[in-house]
Amino acid sequence: MTTPPAPGSEPVPSEGAQEGLDAVLPGGDPGDDDAPRPRKRRWPRVLIGVGVFLVLVVLGLAGLVWQRESAYNGNIDRLHGVMPNDANRPGPSAVGTENWLLVGSDTRAKAGTTGTGGTVWKTGQQRSDTIMLLHLPADRKKAYVVSFPRDSWVDVPGYGEQKINAAFSYGGPPLLIETVEHLTGVRVDHFGAIDFNGFKSMTDALGGVTVTVKNDVYDPKRHVEWSAGKHKLDGEQALTFVRQRYNLPNGDFDRIKRQQAFLGALAKKAADGGTITNPLKLDRFLSAFTKSISVDDKVGAGKLRSLALSLRGIRASDITFMTVPNKGSASRGRQSVVLLDRKRSGALFTAIKTADMANYVRTYGGGNRVGTVS
Fold first, then answer.
1. 3 — pLDDT class (breaks 50, 70, 90)
2. Nearest 5°: CA angle at 268, between 247 and 134?
3. In sequence order, which ranges of 157-209 are alpha helices (DSSP H)?
4. Is the pTM of this model over 0.85?
5. Which CATH code fits 41-110+120-364?
């Protein structure tokens, strides 16, 4: 990164007008990241959890991770009551497959949003800026990460048509899970999330990660200039990188690709950076990971161990990153939204449910290219 231009030397895109509107609309972006934040508990989280689960795979940690199983497991938060009632939920997907809903949120709440024995939800004070569905086939030879644009215009049960992240604002994880299941027809087996501090500490524990930017681009919100080429990011810089939305050629769609590029870089660095051969570095990384993640209360230590063992053969090249097929941006009232391509997205959701993702990729393509991003 280089020193930014003097204030006023770069035009602020017209999309900034929408930012002010989003701050007062459910599902919007209330001030993004510049306002001072109160100290908060580790929930809600910012999702980068999918990357870490896959890092465990890439590293092939198997039994080594669990030498300190008790300590690591004790670090993980279990979220009670996040899975919706079984009534009217989709049936199980193909035998042996598994689907995780992984969510990132930037909360403005001044107190914890979960509590012992139930959920304390502050309507309108939470946003899910990152929503991903991780699909694991039965043979665990591949992994598919499907991102939902946060402005996707969908039916939110009980609220009508809304942006998909409004579901998280209105009703937290249970309503978001219900919304995703209603949209996709795919049953969500587990829920996971991670916080910003964990995101930073995991990056720093690996000694930083490297991403490649295609063209020079200025972030007018954070006053950062990204030059074309490779950038080695520490935790704070990585947050800035994945948060940028304004002044990117394709707005939030490019931010999704940046998030996915970071996950791929994190997995690659974990595999190539000597983490597994350095006990101290490995312990720092796993401690940062487990202190930051939250999962639903059905995920015990045994489940996480089994997940790591079942995925130990996957490499970074076996992970396919995708965005839900859509028709691009549109307006609904005063809101800028994203309209999903019902036919193409329907084919994707059917492929997930029926364990036919390999055929879907052959027919429609192999997902997002995130080696170099805007």
1. very low
2. 75
3. 164-184, 196-205
4. no
5. 3.40.630.190
